[in-house]
Amino acid sequence: MVLRPHSRASAVLSFLAFLTASTCVSASRSPGLPFVINTWGGAFTAATDAAYLALIADRNTSALDAVEIGCATCEKNQCDTTVGYGGSPDESCETTLDAMVMDGTSMKTGAVAGLRRIKDAIGVARAVLEHTRHSLLVGDLATNFAIENGFKEQDLTTEASKEKCEAWKRANCQSNYRLNVAPDPSTSCGPYTPLPGIDQQTLARSVMEDKGAVSHDTISMVVIHESGIMAAGTSTNGASHKVPGRVGDGPIVGSGSYVDGDVGGCGATGDGDIMMRFLPCYQAIENLRQGMSPQDAAEDVVARMLRKYPNMSSGIVVANTKGEHGGAGSGWTFTYSFRGGDMEATEVVSVPPLPRRLEERRRNTNDIPDEI
């Protein structure tokens, strides 16, 4: 099959039109309970193992406990330098942390965003869940809350993160997240001053040309206890060289992760500033509620985002209450890890970008449109 020449955006949109008319692959079979699934393979499998082994070692370990243990493992290990201290410095060379936990029975959540000088972000998020009626605390006041609850104040900067930031400054602060400012952010560092607002045509063009975030890896985890109780959580240090004060999708309920113990759970990673506009994990669980398989639910969510942002990077992992699971992504080859039942080791699933996956599906079906 030969594709006619189109822009990348047009090709993506055409592929997505085919998605709605094609039969999606079914969910991967559940290995049994307890069950742990999270975004990414590689270093992130340590989190999968930690959560799973905690559930196996002691039946009194709750789903929330396992989520906290798993995410905390990545925070301590600085998984891919995108989780925990010493990674993703902002424009001022400071590392701040975002985290969220959610209970699938009560639907209660606890989250922190822009957390400063506290390493255990997922632990503070759980303290918000268990010791307040709130859902989200931010910035220095979240740090004060953490200290009140016994967490230790520490410097999150490392020599590596400091050098990364200084190298970025030496390279004229490239790349960055500034738009419509002077001096030109594509060639210069700040300080910046705003230019007059952009019109709708320019805004629409900037969306189609958006290359996505510079860095965007997050651990998002879903756990099913052997009793069937579910929980989910997310931890990240955000995007490298972000504007100070920026909060991504990680601590946003329904975006970074989401769980409904009657239906299933979802974890997400990718261009957080874009993804939070779609609440992809909430949508994925609603897709499950409407009868989609986890694989269908994940692909539908990615397709919705790609229709508006064809260049974005994303990764979605979805599991139903049985531990059947699926994943989808765009802009990169996404991976996710899972372990459940009597599995002796974590398995990693590689997920091609959604348009490529549809291309492969077209080759294996007789129901192929004449044109793309």
Automatic annotation (TrEMBL):
Gene3D superfamilies, sorted: (Glycosyl)asparaginase
Q: Which SUPFAM superfamilies match?
A: N-terminal nucleophile aminohydrolases (Ntn hydrolases)
Short name of any one Pfam family annotated for the protein: Asparaginase_2
InterPro entries, per this entry?
Ntn_hydrolases_N, Peptidase_T2
Is the keyword Signal assigned to this protein?
yes
Q: Which domain of life is it from?
A: Eukaryota
What keywords tag this UniProt record?
Signal
Show which residues constitute the signal peptide. 1-27
Q: What is this protein called?
A: N(4)-(Beta-N-acetylglucosaminyl)-L-asparaginase
Give the organism, scientific name.
Podospora pseudoanserina
